[in-house]
Amino acid sequence: MSQLRKLNIQFRLLLCAHHSFRM
């Protein structure tokens, strides 16, 4: 469960970074 949560956070961070890069 902890691993899944970590993956979710990493995915969210990546998505945020991608959005910022696009902007």
TrEMBL record:
> From which source organism is this entry?
Arundo donax
The protein depicted here goes by the name: Uncharacterized protein
Superkingdom assignment: Eukaryota
